[in-house]
Amino acid sequence: MEGVRPGGGPPTGGPGSGSGSGSGSFPSLFPPGLHGIYGECRRLYPDQPNPLQVTAILKYWLGGPDPLDYVSMYRNLGNPALNVPEHWHYVSFGLSDLYGDNRVHEFTGTEGPSGFGFELTFRLKRETGESAPPTWPAELMQGLARYVFQSENTFCSGDHVSWHSPLDNSESRIQHMLLTEDPQMQPVQTPFGVVTFLQIVGVCTEELHAAQQWNGQGILELLRTVPVAGGPWLITDMRRGETIFEIDPHLQQERVDKGIETDGSNLSGVSAKCAWDDLSRPPEDDEDSRSICIGTQPRRLSGKDTEQIRETLRRGLEINSKPVLPPINAQRQNGLNLDRAPSRKDSLESESSAAIIPHELIRTRQLESVHLKFNQESGALIPLCLRGRLLHGRHFTYKSITGDTAITFVSTGVEGAFATEEHPYAAHGPWLQILLTEEFVERMLEDLEDLNSPEEFKLPKEYSWPEKKLKVSILPDAVFDNPLH
């Protein structure tokens, strides 16, 4: 539960929140980490010392569900000279270390990041006659914070979040998010480390898809050039009815398509509804280590096997891949798709992972024939995987939202892959790798062209390349939701 109240400055932290340690010293009035962030807010809003604030009634460190202790809401007059409209500015408190006493975050010193190293902000266009800020952005920020706390994955500028629902639960076209640096708030040095400020930017589905196929930073730059779609401060207007490509059709062809062709895609992994079958092995084989077999009982992994696989997946796929966002409520399931600049060495494994988790702990199997299964949303990303990633010498991973299953497509230039040109299908437990040559990728793109027209799509749909012993099926969501059905 949350409550709205006047801010009255940063709230007191309760017993143990102060910085005084001697018997003759008094604890600080405010938690030092919170005070540092509040100081940056006061710099921007000296005339608003008591902003409205949404506060978690039962704090996270007392067992409450909401990781953010507070979300402050300020009225920003914008900048008419830059064509920046008046808007509401939301700032979170809690992803960074506010207290420094290990109640939420482990204190690791003053030089590194404080807590997760960032707080979230959001800029919402103020509607005419609106006297108080809407509070729904606070719940949106709590949802993102829950993901960070549960997964221990942080956000970076350029990341994007597939939300699949209007951010304010209205009929708005703004249904997804990009993340960028806040244009006004500067990094803060607190007694518990450095805090930066990442701003949430609401976008339409078409803009999200463009970010997936190219990169988030490129789309953010385009949004900055279109005043009604964000402008220089990237202000979210929930009433925006047109995408930037409808406002200026040249942006798609001249900027996005050219960027995809030149740069490829920075999206290298998604959480998905997916599965795979080893068609070269009879189903009754007890050693079969397929992770999900639609229509059959999946083999159960031992606890030790599961931990080894999770560690291998975490270290082997940690370059640009994250788990799915937890649902905000029972009616909405959200997924985070990472959009991140490629690493210096585009590899499936970190340099140290092989020493920590030897490959022999999980036996590698070469497969003769495989059957890949995706729901429609995941299948629609296959052309992106092929055109934007593999043709640029990169890899792309589907990580199942229902278990340890992972399917990684690799090109011949990717380092660290256990699939080879001689054995293009290989598996480490439930992790399948598929190596595709450039010639085969080009052919698949032609055969899969109808995936780009989902409105004409009828499920189930099957594609097959018999000479390559590869089959791909696009199946209804219900198949994955009820794998034994």
From TrEMBL:
Listed Gene3D superfamilies:
Sufu, C-terminal domain
Q: Which GO terms describe its cellular component?
A: cilium; cytosol; nucleus
Q: What ranges does the record list as Gly residues composition bias?
A: 14-23
Domain Suppressor of fused C-terminal, first and last residues per copy: 254-474
* Residues covered by the Suppressor of fused-like domain: 64-240
Q: Which GO terms describe its biological process?
A: negative regulation of smoothened signaling pathway; negative regulation of transcription by RNA polymerase II; signal transduction
Q: Where in the cell is it found?
A: Cytoplasm; Nucleus
SUPFAM superfamilies documented for this protein: Suppressor of Fused, N-terminal domain
Which InterPro entries does the record match to this protein? Answer: SUFU-like_domain (IPR020941), SUFU_C (IPR024314), SUFU_C_sf (IPR038489), SUFU_N (IPR037181), Suppressor_of_fused (IPR007768), Suppressor_of_fused_euk (IPR016591)
Question: Origin, by domain of life?
Answer: Eukaryota
Q: Which family does it belong to?
A: Belongs to the SUFU family.
Q: What is this protein called?
A: Suppressor of fused homolog
